[in-house]
Amino acid sequence: MQTGLATPSIRTEILAGVSTFLATMYIIVVNPAILSQSGLPFSGVLTATILLSFACSLMMGLYARNPMVVAPGMGINAFFTFTAVKVMGVRPEVALGAVFWAGVLFMILSVLNVRSAIVKLIPKTLRYSVSAGIGLFITLIGFENARFIVANPATLVSIASLKDPIVLTFIFGLLLTSVLMIRQVPGAIIIGIVLTTLAAVPVGRWWGDASAVNFGTKTLVNFHGIFAAPDFSLIGKLDLIHSLQWTLWPVIFAFVFTDLFNSLSTFVGVAEAADLYDEDGNPRNMNRSLLTDAVATTLAGLLGTSPGTAYIESAVGIAQGGRTGLTAIVAGLLFLPFLFLSPLLSVIPGIATAPALVLVGAFMMKPITKINWNQLDNALPAYLSMVLIPFSYSITQGLTWGFLTWTIVKLSLGKTNEVPVGLLIVDLFCILSLFSGH
């Protein structure tokens, strides 16, 4: 029997869509703030972010008929900037090409319905640890952007001096946003970003710090108005040829892996929360939802942003009663007005979005509660995978060492049934990536 399909009122669906948008709109600012550090223009990424979120949320609502927003994913945007571009030295245009090919591969996997076979290859314990590791990675980036964690020649890293006004402003934003979220205030993250930006104004004015909203003697130095035409400069700027180099396949694989499991975990989690199951007990319209997710990744490369994925924050709208695709349609439409606000949004400093990164990272830690820490042959590979992601500043390294450690430990214990042939093939790609110079 099909469950969770009772249709709520149109008013309920609209309110649910508004709530979902308020819970996810932080990506409009946070995604350009992260990707602009790769060398891509802030305004171009902002336009790409909004277009992707609008188009693919509509597709999720009209085609997959599920109440979920689709937007550039957190964590995978950090991988794009800090691992692919900054650590591996991949040009941003080439990285966009890798995003496109990852989307194409994801679409093929979705159309051929082989995703279930891929899922079975990856131990659940490693899936949980990778999610947590990405959460720690995002948190570290947030602390770094806020100058809360700084380099130290004696201890490698340390906490910055509390005499720094930038650090104090960040702490204010972090505590304020935390309280708003705990009190379940709608749009807590975006409210925190706005209020932290306002708190950063006197820092820029009195201390002249470029990390804050910086005033000159009479006017804002980095303020160029409120409205502007959308910046379409990144559309079609991807490098499709060079992104197919052998050395880029670990990057493409990481995009596919992260996107695949992000979307699967989101669909399962949302279905559980809303009882959105079909007659077979599977998440409703799973194939269409996954295909929408794959299209989002492919389109992301064409538009000029990191891969798109379904957002777990969609649960906010579901809690408000959203059950149909109308929730996603309303949320998607609400992204459009922000196309014309890039000058205003570009004023927002890194210390204002840093609290959002730290707190989103906290949400991603939840899966580690599913790891059996008393079973060491499962726990140790998961632990290494989780901690190596932030410590190596690379999601790829965390994935690689998690897979390899799992295989070695299980084979040494004679548990060959827990190391399928497909996983050995993945291990081979991991070893090749380790010796590819990255």
TrEMBL record:
<comment type="similarity">
    <text>Belongs to the nucleobase:cation symporter-2 (NCS2) (TC 2.A.40) family. Azg-like subfamily.</text>
</comment>
<feature type="transmembrane region" description="Helical">
    <location>
        <begin position="248"/>
        <end position="270"/>
    </location>
</feature>
<keyword id="KW-0813">Transport</keyword>
<dbReference type="Pfam" id="PF00860">
    <property type="entry name" value="Xan_ur_permease"/>
</dbReference>
<dbReference type="InterPro" id="IPR006043">
    <property type="entry name" value="NCS2"/>
</dbReference>
<feature type="transmembrane region" description="Helical">
    <location>
        <begin position="380"/>
        <end position="399"/>
    </location>
</feature>
<feature type="transmembrane region" description="Helical">
    <location>
        <begin position="324"/>
        <end position="341"/>
    </location>
</feature>
<feature type="transmembrane region" description="Helical">
    <location>
        <begin position="419"/>
        <end position="437"/>
    </location>
</feature>
<feature type="transmembrane region" description="Helical">
    <location>
        <begin position="69"/>
        <end position="88"/>
    </location>
</feature>
<dbReference type="GO" id="GO:0005345">
    <property type="term" value="F:purine nucleobase transmembrane transporter activity"/>
</dbReference>
<dbReference type="GO" id="GO:0005886">
    <property type="term" value="C:plasma membrane"/>
</dbReference>
<feature type="transmembrane region" description="Helical">
    <location>
        <begin position="189"/>
        <end position="207"/>
    </location>
</feature>
<feature type="transmembrane region" description="Helical">
    <location>
        <begin position="12"/>
        <end position="34"/>
    </location>
</feature>
<feature type="transmembrane region" description="Helical">
    <location>
        <begin position="290"/>
        <end position="312"/>
    </location>
</feature>
<feature type="transmembrane region" description="Helical">
    <location>
        <begin position="94"/>
        <end position="114"/>
    </location>
</feature>
<keyword id="KW-1133">Transmembrane helix</keyword>
<keyword id="KW-0472">Membrane</keyword>
<feature type="transmembrane region" description="Helical">
    <location>
        <begin position="166"/>
        <end position="182"/>
    </location>
</feature>
<dbReference type="GO" id="GO:0012505">
    <property type="term" value="C:endomembrane system"/>
</dbReference>
<keyword id="KW-0812">Transmembrane</keyword>
<dbReference type="InterPro" id="IPR045018">
    <property type="entry name" value="Azg-like"/>
</dbReference>
<feature type="transmembrane region" description="Helical">
    <location>
        <begin position="126"/>
        <end position="146"/>
    </location>
</feature>
<protein>
    <submittedName>
        <fullName>NCS2 family permease</fullName>
    </submittedName>
</protein>
<feature type="transmembrane region" description="Helical">
    <location>
        <begin position="40"/>
        <end position="62"/>
    </location>
</feature>
